Amino acid sequence: MNPFEILGIHPPRLSISALDLERDYHCLSLLCHPDHHASDEALAKTSALNAAYRALRDPWSRADAFLKWVPGATLAPQKSHDISSLANAYFEIQESEDLQGLRDFAFEVETRLNRLESERESLFQSIDSQLSQGLSGEKNRGLLAASLKDLIDFKRSLDSMLRDLRMRLAGQG
């Protein structure tokens, strides 16, 4: 089921605040919680509500849900984040025994992840603005969705690199 609909977020918004999301979740939870309404329907509604909240509480998983549930958000991504040069440097540093080089590269990846957060916020606001204005045309919606998909893929690659670097550093430190 569509987590945006379950939590009553119409139209779907990416830049909903964590506080607003939590407040809406708790209000809806009180209306259908099995402790207050003993029925199989209440249990099913609470289960769906919990799953929707888990899907939307993290901005990156919210972006995944957005791509899955918002119509027209399915065009192939346009690669604006080139991971190839970073991946090449990553593989070179993995072959190296240079501990300081590993630390420096991990710092660079962390820095890029931090910059990606502000880029995500900006893109979320842009998409929400387009949605509130009726998002003229499927092409516009698809282009925004493609940018979002590219951003998500790039973040996943950086997260994976950083996780591997930290494990390697922990083993050598």
Describe the secondary-structure layout.
Blueprint: H1 3-6, H2 18-32, H3 40-57, H4 59-69, H5 84-95, H6 99-132, H7 138-172
Helix pairs in contact: 2-3, 3-4, 4-7, 6-7
- Radius of gyration, Cα only, in angstroms? 20 Å
The overall pLDDT, averaged over residues, is 82
The major beta sheet can be summarized as: none
Q: For the terminal residues, how far apart are their CA atoms?
A: 46 Å
| Beta strands, count | 0
Q: What global shape is seen?
A: globular
CATH topology of the largest domain: Helix Hairpins
CATH architecture of the largest domain: Orthogonal Bundle
Per CATH, the class of the largest domain reads Mainly Alpha
- Number of discrete helical segments: 7
Strand content: under 5%
Point out poorly predicted stretches: none
Number of domains: 2
Helix content: over 70%
Order of helices and strands: HHHHHHH
Structural class from helices and strands? mainly alpha
Can you characterise this structure?
There is one protein chain. The protein has two domains: 3-69, DnaJ domain (Helix Hairpins), CATH 1.10.287.110; 84-172, Orthogonal Bundle (Helix Hairpins). The chain is 75% helix and 0% strand. The protein has helices at 3-6, 18-32, 40-57, 59-69, 84-95, 99-132, 138-172. The chain is globular, with a radius of gyration of 20 Å. The mean pLDDT is 82.
